[in-house]
Specification:
The chain has helices at residues 21-27, 32-43, 49-58, 65-72, 81-90, 103-113, 143-155, 172-175, 188-191, 204-209, and strands at residues 7-11, 94-102, 117-126, 129-136, 162-166, 180-184, 196-198. With 210 residues, it is an alpha/beta fold. It has a seven-stranded mixed beta sheet with strand order 4-3-2-1-5-6-7, sandwiched between helices.
């Protein structure tokens, strides 16, 4: 490996996972088109992430938690995700997932894909069904950058030793804290700030770059 990288941070939806968890969950309630439209606006930077997340989660009200978990445990992972994480870990790189999505999906993916830690949001529920409320680590446009900065301080890892991989506007804040910025099958708003662009839906392209 020709880059001196010690920390790799991946976005989850449309990066480690092939799709958007919240759109798939909304499909259960026949609201996929409505939620996808809001997701698209948020990922293109046309809507504040907090506003879009709150709005979309409110539409999931009434969905049984058991069904949420079933869906989140059967999401399609991105082509090459497992191999790429294995490769990074074999080079003693810490691999972390930051997601504006949900713990139901990212904690399970951590077991399946083998990354070191996941930071995401929690769907609030009562009596086994979603209340339409959400809280957690990744609620705002700036959340990923803030968490990355704190993680770097904790681990003693510099910007130069950090690579970040994402696809949408809420990944922009991470880019400020890493020298290696990967836009993976990304929106234009992110591509403009990236110094590595991958347009094929295969994370193994990252191995070739490294």
């Amino acid at each position: 490996m020709n880059l001196n990288i010690k920390l790799a941070v991946f976005d989850f939806d449309s990066t480690l996972m092939d799709g958007e968890t919240i759109d798939i969950l909304a499909g259960e309630l026949g609201l996929k088109a409505e939620v996808s439209k809001i997701t698209e606006e948020a990922m293109n930077g046309k809507l504040s992430f907090f506003e879009s997340l709150s709005k979309r989660v409110s539409l999931l009200k009434g969905l049984p938690v058991e069904r949420v978990d079933q869906i989140c445990h059967n999401l399609p992972y991105m082509n090459g995700a497992l191999e790429t994480i294995k490769y990074l870990k074999s080079n003693n790189i810490k691999v972390v997932c930051f997601s504006g999505g949900f713990r139901n999906a990212t904690s399970y993916a951590k077991e399946q894909l083998g990354f070191d830690a996941d930071f995401s949001n929690i769907l609030h529920s009562k009596d086994g069904v979603l209340t339409g409320l959400v809280g957690g680590d990744m609620m705002f446009d700036w959340s990923k950058g803030d968490m990355l900065s704190r993680l770097q301080n904790l681990l003693g890892i510099s910007k130069h030793e950090t690579i970040v991989i994402g696809d949408g506007a809420n990944d922009l804040s991470m880019f400020k804290h890493a020298d290696h910025k990967v836009a993976f099958c990304a929106k234009e708003v992110l591509k403009r700030e990236a110094n590595i662009i991958i347009d094929q839906k295969d994370l193994k392209n990252l191995i070739n770059i490294l």
